[in-house]
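Aim 2 progress update. The chain analyzed this quarter is reproduced below.
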Amino acid sequence: MKKPDIIPLITKILISLGSILLFIFLRGPALAKITTPGLDNKLLKQKNAHPSPSRLDQAREHFKKGVQYSQAQRVDLAIQEYRKTLEFDPNFVMAHVNLGMSYLQQQEVEAAIQELKKAIQKDPKLKLARFDLWWAYRQQGKYDEGIAELKAVIALDPNNVNAYLNLGDSYLADKKMLPEAIQAYLEALARGRQTALIHQKIGKAYELSGQVDKAIEQFQRAISVDKNNLYTYLFLYVCLEKSKKKLEAAEALRNGLSAFRKEPRLADSSYQDIAHIMECLLGTYPEKDLMSIKNPIITCQLHYYLGMYYLFQNKRKEAAQHLQQAIDTKINTISEYEYAKIELERIKGQK
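Predicted structure tokens:
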């Protein structure tokens, strides 16, 4: 019996095997798409995680345009450019920050929070993003979350004056935690140069906690630092009225107006409206004429001080109405808004 020819058989097997390998080699990517549907997305993400030099250049160009639009107050166009920046370079942290702040300008607070969180996730030591996130949380009334961000900034930078000031504001606004607010403000004073603002904040916290003498001392220090800051005279007026020192309270307002008139540069600013408020409290400017003020911030301040004025006249109904009007402005980013809330709660609690 003739033995089979082994060589041709082996050759056929090798040829068949080679054909199979060639098919796999040529069609492998297509097969991979069929068997692993998520592979393309994974590869794309890996590619975007390490953009090419050309994509990085494009990202920088879009970011530059975004900054220019931001400076020109063209927020919609700025948002588009920051989004394009992140398309070309998802790791561009400042694009997340600027996009978040642009959303805040558009009152899209939740979208802003998400972008700022992404920035912090990529760079946990970025203090700017944490400050901006605190600001966004404050607008939502999420003070606990905001306080956590400020404490994170302080952990990174124990001498950050602004972090302590904002921490004091948050304690005062949400928790009515006046001792904690005072301590935070004092920490700010210990770490930075004396400013009228810091002494104002310490003074108001002392005043609201009933420590009027300490409050007066802080306001006097604020005036010694900056005699042209009209708000200090208004704070001092309120404090002296609470101390039943009506003559001294009126004198504080007159001193503020004197400083205002001696400083020409203040005449063309919003201080003109503040000066009219002071004149109204002295009875030399009609209250009805103040109702035409358009600036919502000054409107909030106006109703706070009118509320306190009527409270000192024992006209509690009128006082409550003005304090409520201050709150109704919803300008929760200024101190007078928070002070109005505290004073109105006290009036209601005394009924």
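Residues 171 and 177 are 5 Å apart (CA to CA). The first helix runs from residue 6 to 35. These observations will guide the mutagenesis experiments scheduled for the next reporting period.
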